[in-house]
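Module 6 notes. Inverse folding takes a fixed backbone as the condition and produces residue identities as the prediction. Think of it as a translation problem where the source language is geometry and the target language is the twenty amino acids. Below is one complete input and output pair. Work through it position by position during the lab.
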């Protein structure tokens, strides 16, 4: 099968089509593997689980500032509440809180 474009004759070849398709699929699969490895490398799997006992006068805010002073306490409080299934923002003295912290905190 031949196609004429602006006076030039182009011949359709199934071999060239499948070779180009194979090259494109190879490039896409290589790119997907590379992107997934980059994503794995950027996630921090070095997490420690610590347990904190709440003392009299402690608040979620003070605990968040204690474990991650350079981070936004609201984010840390949200993590504490979600990992301990706490609905309210109040804690009781003697309560044990499990915290999953990254090694960079």
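Target side of the pair, the amino acids:
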């Amino acid at each position: 099968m031949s196609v004429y474009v602006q006076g030039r004759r182009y011949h359709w070849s199934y071999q060239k089509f499948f070779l180009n398709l194979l090259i494109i699929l190879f490039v896409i699969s290589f790119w997907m593997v590379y992107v997934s490895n980059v994503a794995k490398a950027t996630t921090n799997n070095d997490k420690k689980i610590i347990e904190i006992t709440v003392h009299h006068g402690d608040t979620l805010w003070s605990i968040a500032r204690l474990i991650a002073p350079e981070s936004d306490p609201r984010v840390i409080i949200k993590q504490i509440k979600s990992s301990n299934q706490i609905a309210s923002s109040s804690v009781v003295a003697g309560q044990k809180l499990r915290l999953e912290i990254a090694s960079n905190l």
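Reference fact for the lab report: The chain has a mean pLDDT of 83.
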